[in-house]
Every structure is written in structure tokens, then in C-alpha cells.
Design goal:
single chain; alpha+beta; two-stranded antiparallel ribbon; two-stranded parallel ribbon; 37% helix; 10% strand; elongated
Length: 99
């Protein structure tokens, strides 16, 4: 079980767990359950064609998980160390009084 933003407990749906066990490996199913518990986003990827990616995404989104297909994402890699890592960007990017 995991807590929602409002502190309510929620349980991973048993019918979804059963569906996933038919479709995925034990490791993949465990990873999805862990993502559910820790509120992590799941990126679904695989070969082109009808492999169940969109269906899996719809099932996971339907039970409250944030799941996206790889083509819907943009990956940014930052490898260069910041020269001035402590910087207050609030004044530059956020208007006063805005939340």
C-alpha cells in the first residue's frame, strides 16, 4: 500500500496485478509495484509494432500510475559541473506574489 497526496492509503489493484503477471516478467511486475509505492513515473519502451505498450500505459494510468511511452519523453543529460551551483533563480524566473 502507498499513501496519496492527501495521506490516504491506496492498494495496488489485484486484478491489475493478475493482468500484469500474464503480460510481464516477475521482475517487470515487481518494478511496476515499486513505482506504484514510491510514486515514480514509468517509461514504457519496446520494439515497434503491436507489443502492448499503449495498452500497458492505459492500464497503468487507469490505476493511478503515471506511465508514458518512450516516444513521449525527452531525455536531457547534464555532464558538466556547474560553476556556481548555489544560485537563487526565484527572482529571475518567478514573479513576486505568484505561487
Amino acid at each position: 500500500m502507498t499513501r496519496t497526496d492527501k495521506g490516504l492509503l491506496r492498494r495496488f489493484p489485484e486484478d491489475v496485478a493478475e493482468y500484469l503477471s500474464d503480460l510481464l516478467s516477475c521482475e517487470q511486475t515487481a518494478a511496476i509495484k515499486e513505482a506504484f509505492s514510491s510514486n515514480k513515473v514509468i517509461i514504457i519502451k519496446g520494439v515497434a509494432g503491436m507489443t502492448g505498450k499503449s495498452t500497458l500505459k492505459a492500464v497503468l494510468n487507469n490505476c493511478g500510475l503515471k506511465a508514458v511511452e518512450e516516444f513521449e519523453t525527452v531525455e536531457i543529460t547534464l555532464n558538466k559541473a556547474l560553476k556556481n551551483p548555489v544560485i537563487d533563480l526565484r527572482a529571475r524566473f518567478f514573479k513576486k506574489g505568484a505561487k
